[in-house]
Amino acid sequence: ADPYAILLAGRSAASWYGLLPATPEPLRGDKRRDPVARALLVDPDTAVGNWISGRRELVDGRAGAAALRLELASFARPSSLLLMADAAAGLSAAGRFEAAWTAWLLVEAARPGDPRFALGVARAALAAGHPEEARARLDALPGPHQRTVEVASLRARVAEALGLESSSYYDQILAIWQQVDPADAEREARIAGARRLDEEPGRPRRL
To answer: What is each CA distance from 145 to 54, 89, 168, in whole angstroms?
Structure first.
């Protein structure tokens, strides 16, 4: 790799992490004064430069551009599982759900059973229309990982996608959610919705 490109990539990382002053908004993309843009000008294939650019695009709400940069970063350093996972997350953010699901499956295959990636895999499965796959990943999480707001809320969405709102399984999910965050408004809304379903004429009671 070009030594100057490596130096610029380091500067772009330092700018991103706040070790150097952030590039003012009007100068972003200026290939002379924006270290992130300049690093990519000198070496368009740099993993660090593309990753920093992708993360910045994601924060700025440009998901499509972010997904492209994060994919390029992963291609540039295919041995990096974290870059692979970030590329998969970028595809999800860009609404490319089937592509994201495929990308997350590659991450999962590289590190089976790693709980760091289970939420990403489950979210991608649900978004791509595979709620059973999402449920399998969440059910396989170790006990301590089950008791978080993120997992409880995702499990509720998966159960709803499977049509299980009137089941004891759904009640158990909401009970765990209540324990980890009693004041969560999203959980309260789901409880109210489940009660309304129970009150519908002719609907079977919870099992």
So the answer is: 29, 20, 21
d(CA 93, CA 115) in angstroms, rounded, equals: 21
d(CA 83, CA 183): 35
Cβ atoms within 10 Å, residue 78: 10
Q: Phi-psi bin for 2: left (phi > 0), alpha (psi -120 to 50), beta?
A: beta
Residue in 147, 145, 144, 141 with CA at minimum distance from that of residue 180: 147
Structure tokens, 20: 């150097």
What sign has the CA pseudo-torsion 137, 78, 2, 72? negative
Q: Which residue has the higher pLDDT, 28 or 173?
A: 173
Token digits of residue 5: 């490109």
Count of alpha carbons within 13 angstroms of residue 69, beta-carbon side = 22
CB atoms < 10 A from the CB of 73, how many?
26
Q: What angle do CA 146, 150, 151 make, to 5 degrees?
A: 30
Letter string b/e over residues 24-40, b meaning 16 or more CB atoms within 10 A of that residue's CB: eeeeeeeeeebbbbbbb
User: How far is CA 20 from each of CA 11, 17, 51, rounded to the nearest angstrom?
Assistant: 8, 8, 17
Token couple for 14: 């330092």
Q: What is the pLDDT of residues 94-118, one digit of tens each?
A: 999 999 999 999 999 999 989 999 9
| 80-89, 105-114, 170-179: the lowest-pLDDT one | 170-179
